[in-house]
Amino acid sequence: MKLRIDTAGVSFICTRAPEARIAFDSGQQKLDRETGLPLWQVQVMALDASGGDVIAVTVAGDPNLTVGQPVQVDGLVALPWNQEGRSGIAFRADAIRASGAPLAGVIAPPRTVTPPNTPAGTGKPAA
């Protein structure tokens, strides 16, 4: 079962260079069943106002990304799996590409600290 993930309000940053997905049996790069394109795994940090998590996302076609680059993840889905007593969640995307979007909308602005004995907003010590 594919579970679509709403990425509105989420920024992504590439945290590891894309790596080819290799088939254990053949040692060859895996290919997408629908397109025939080679599969790549990209490690990204998903960041929103509540924090961030690092996930590995598989995508068809070389994403040509660099570490630290903001990226856009299109069509992100979660694929729960269970095999031989092990289980997890795999992530897959239709595309991962460079993004010009700033991260400022996700990271909270710095707080202004009022020194002790200073009435808020005046910047002057209390009398």
How do the strands and helices of this protein lay out in sequence?
Elements: E1 3-4, E2 11-20, E3 39-48, E4 51-60, E5 70-74, E6 77-83, E7 86-92, E8 95-98
Parallel strand pairs: 4-7
Antiparallel strand pairs: 1-6, 2-3, 2-5, 3-4, 5-8, 6-7
Structural class assignment:
mainly beta
Helical amount among residues, as a percent range? under 10%
The largest beta-sheet arranges its strands as 1-6-7-4-3-2-5-8
Query: What is the CATH class?
Result: Mainly Beta
CATH third-tier fold name = OB fold (Dihydrolipoamide Acetyltransferase, E2P)
Corresponding CATH architecture: Beta Barrel
Strand content: 35-45%
Major sheet size, sense and barrel closure = 8 strands, mixed
Average pLDDT works out at 86
Tally of separate domains: 1
